[in-house]
User: What shape does this take?
Amino acid sequence: MQTKKPIHLLYVPTLFCNMSCSYCYLGELTNKKIDLSAVVETLQTSIEKFVSHGYIPYNLSFHGGEVTTLPTETLEKLFKITDSYYKTYAQDIASLGFSPTPIHIKTNLYNLKAHHKILKQYKVSISGSVDLPLSLHEKYRRDKQGNSTLDKIKENLRWLASYPHHAKISCVVTQEHLREIDAFIEDIKYIHDDIGLDMTKFNIMFSFDSIKNHEKFLQAIEGTEMLTHEEQVIFYKKIYQAFEGTVLDEGLRTHWFKEFTPDYCCSAVNCGNKFFLIESNGKVSSCPRGQSSESYSYGNILDDDIETIIANGWKRIERNENRLGIDSECMHCEFFPYCNLGCTFVRDETETNKSYTCQLQKEIYRDNPKKYPPYSEAAIKQHVKAYCYQNKIPMLEEMERYEQKEQTITPELYEKHNTLSQIISRDAILQSIYSQELFYLHVAKQNYTLSSQILKNKSEILFLNKQDPIYLYFHKDIFKINTLPRDEVNNYIHMMVLSGNSVSYGDEERHKQEHLFDYSIYKNACVSQSTLVGEYYCLDIHPIFELHQQLFREGIKHNLFFSTKTMREYHYSKHRKNAFYHIQAINLPFANIEFFWL
Assistant: This one.
């Protein structure tokens, strides 16, 4: 087995939850009854499939729904599988740079007592979700019948305080939590001092307005609405004022607001490269948030090829990012490389164009300047360009545009009369050759304009594969360019494919892209295989790519050109006649686009 990359794996053995929290982003999904038939087998199969293909889970955690609603014997089987995996692949995980991690569960703590023995036996790391102040837990975290859960939660918090292995709690903050901030602070102290649970590892999270939650409750429950950016900062500062310099100071600075730092998945450029969640029915999604939406589903581990699922991860996040906007302020923010706009799913749900904790994150960065120094203007520009190249392709057009490059041999090239654009403007046939109206590609339900590479100041990249159809649209009058009517039948469309690898040849010994293959289709044959759509013929060229797919190199950018026989003849004739045109059009000028073959 060749290790390809590490992954973070969450397993959801059940979506069912024994509580009915008012701000849950899963909505009605938590009413789904437990199906024990495949819970254990799906985990075993998932681990085996990932590992056999070189994808090593460095962290394997259990999430829900509510994990502890499972029977103890089922939970023990899951822990046994995970424990065996960690022991078997400990060396592989270490070689990838990750420290050993314990089995971990996220739980609402309500049913914890039923599993005390096996939790201790497998040294399970426990993260409990609790509302603070506890009066709001009483209000919002009721069971399915609407009954209080608070007494049982307090009892389990006391047990957790004496638990010999890693244990912590987290809290989701809403509008009402901010209104009850003084009681929130007092209950942190109460749990730490009176109950005895170490609160240095406490985690604070902020709620967001969820589509699934609205579907369940028809509207937002009063008090559970998400905080504004300004209110999050107010909350943060009040917490700091209360605990800075106290026995909980270390936790305040390192753990409490850690979710809003670059250490978490929310700040990844593309979380789909690493993070995967699997349900017991085999469905693979991005994360606990994304499991509620088909837009963040990557396939099914029981039915689909692993490589397809892995690829769908980054592709689906990239596709979602490219349909979401970006706040123009972010493109110049000195902290952008730390946050990368935050969680994609939350921006999708809340219809916002920046991280929903933007101002809070800035406060955290400014309070820790040694750890998060602001980026320079040049570094921001470079990072934003790389980010947009992947996640915000439409925004590349809004970024800085560069003037056309002008190469010169003699000072005459600086004269306007001799620039390439002026030469083209005086020649009707050259105008056709350099026109953006002659060809375009249609791939995956999108059109891509083809234009000359030596005139455009930005490049578009396609990702092609053997599954997606590839259609060439060419103008119905293209065979008339530089052709007498009687000779049109001898004209043809000429397709050229070049590799990103460079080779040196010819008297000039220039380094040029290596030619892979040319393909010519004469007019009558071309038209007979095409469908006329308005002013353009549509031709399926996917078979050509499929025929030559063995020539394409993974990770190598390829170049695709289209022209006609007579357009090529005219271009090279112009080369011979006009030195100024020759030197400026020394590289191929024909309609072009670059692509990767997946």
